[in-house]
Design brief:
CATH topology: Rossmann fold
Shape: globular
Structural class: alpha/beta
CATH superfamily: Peptidase S8/S53 domain
Helix content: 25-40%
CATH class: Alpha Beta
Strand content: 15-25%
CATH architecture: 3-Layer(aba) Sandwich
Number of helices: 6
Number of domains: 1
Largest sheet: 4 strands, parallel
């Protein structure tokens, strides 16, 4: 965990555009641990979204840091837009926090935020070869890549203040999803499967 936090801090110091985290530790407790919260807040203040895998242990489970309130977590879908059986998601609660105003506690929230393709995804492997893998870790880079496309296709990076940029990018992705599960956010798809072309269109319509 110390190595992961150090890597995050390095990336923030380098002022990267987005951070993709295909990793996590299984959490069974309804209260998600908060060792990543301070670093997540630092990234968001710098305008850097942190996109995280929600975990591969199935319904009613999540992984850390994807289950942190401030993480932008991702579930997995297949080529038919069905939720992957292994994809995590559940409701969490924050009863006490070093980072949130006591007036908003207890805070109940759902994970993941969005979903993306995560089954039979081809990836580079050692030996100059390719292989197909399953997992929310394969879905997460789709979302980080979508944020990179959103930044490259708009002027959000130069026009929007650091403190608002990550939240705007995340809101554009959430607001443009293909809603596949229950109305609103659910534990299988989040708000829905991302649609980057629609997200860019929404951003253009708003003058970005």
């Amino acid at each position: 965990m110390a190595q992961i936090l150090a890597g995050l801090e390095w990336a923030i110091e380098k002022n990267v555009d987005v951070i993709s985290m295909s990793l996590g530790g299984l959490t069974l407790d309804v209260e998600a641990p908060d060792p990543y919260t301070r670093t997540l807040l630092t990234a968001l203040a710098a305008g850097i979204p942190i996109v995280t895998a929600i975990g591969n242990e199935g319904s009613q489970t999540t992984g850390t840091p994807g289950n942190d309130w401030f993480a932008f977590s991702v579930g997995a879908t297949d080529h038919l837009d069905r939720a992957a059986g292994f994809s995590g998601g559940r409701t969490h609660i924050i009863r006490q926090s070093r980072y949130l105003n006591p007036d908003v506690l207890p805070l109940i929230y759902s994970k993941p935020e969005v979903s993306a393709p995560g089954i039979a995804i081809r990836s580079a492997v050692p030996g100059n070869k390719w292989a197909a893998f399953n997992g929310t870790s394969m879905a997460t880079p789709h979302v980080a890549g979508a944020i990179a496309l959103l930044l490259s296709a708009t002027n959000i990076g130069s026009r929007v203040a650091d403190a608002q940029r990550a939240f705007l990018l995340q809101d554009l992705l959430i607001g443009s999803v293909e809603e596949l599960g229950e109305s609103g956010q659910d534990h299988r798809y989040g708000f829905g499967r991302i649609n980057i072309l629609r997200a860019i269109s929404f951003a253009k319509d708003r003058g970005y």
